[in-house]
Amino acid sequence: MINKELLKEYTDIFGITVDETVIDRFDKYAEALVETNKHLNLTAITDPDGVTVKHFADSLSVMSVCKPEKGSHLLDVGTGAGFPGSVLLMANPDINMTLIDSTQKKLRFISETLDSIGLYAETVHMRAEEAGQLPEYRESFDTVTARAVANLRELSEYCLPFVKIGGTFIAMKSVKTDEEISEAEKAITLLGGKIEKIHSFELGDAGERTLIIIKKISHTPSKYPRPSAKIAKQPIK
Ligand code: SAM
Question: What is the pTM of this model?
């Protein structure tokens, strides 16, 4: 299922290596994704090259800017079918991974599939803005990722409350982001973050991708994240 040569082109660009064991895990996960997708809507991308590049290589791009350390705790917000969270865990099985999504069925697919390849991730069936107010999750993660979940301003309110001081939030974006970033700047500062780096690259035919790397430099005020209706109706300006 995974196109190994194609994947290698990208891992070379990202400056990372994934060994045969990891590729074998990817292969099993990709097979399960496409098989399960026949009866459960997990992804619109099911062709081998598309899955290889748009799901697996794209997820691995996070490692070009942040290589997860052994024993560190990562959280993927709005993980869907496990992108980028499951891929990062399969490539770094010595990290602790938590995956949050508001859709239970997708989390069940992830748990069962990771279990079948001998890995474990904590799955949390909750909205991010609810989990972010719970003491067990708040400011508890070294790295938080999110791909295709919300615009950066809302996403920062979902994600920054989870990040420890000194930790990193990585927002994965596929569209040109200048305007989105300037709209989000005030919220990022208020929530305790500071944009450290903006890294753009070409994901082959899939087009441009941008990773926005935000450092957590101060505590998030306790009123954030607010309930979802407030986040949507009264964005931080
Ligand atoms: N990150 C995955 C990817 O890139 O393939 C999934 C992207 S999908 C477009 C967005 C996912 O975010 C959905 O699975 C949805 O259930 C989840 N989601 C959206 N808002 C959320 C929230 N506030 N809290 C938790 N999950 C959320």
Answer: 0.97
| Residue list, ligand 1 pocket, CB within 6 Å | 78-81, 83, 100-103, 106, 127-129, 147-149, 158
DSSP states along 47-90: SHHHIIIIIIIHHHTHHHH--PPTT-EEEEET-TTTTTHHHHHH
Which domains, from first to last, does the chain contain?
70-233 (3.40.50.150)
Distance CA 160, CA 214 (A): 9
Rounded CA separation 88/14 (Å)? 14
Q: How far is the CA of 127 from the centre of ligand 1 (A)?
A: 9
Rounded-to-integer distance, Cα 93 and Cα 117, Å: 11
Q: 221 and 190 in contact (C-beta within 8 Å)?
A: yes
Q: Per residue in 134-189, pLDDT tens? A: 999 999 999 999 999 999 999 999 999 999 999 999 999 987 689 999 999 999 99
H/E segment holding residue 18: none
Measured distance CA(64)–CA(153) in Å, rounded: 24
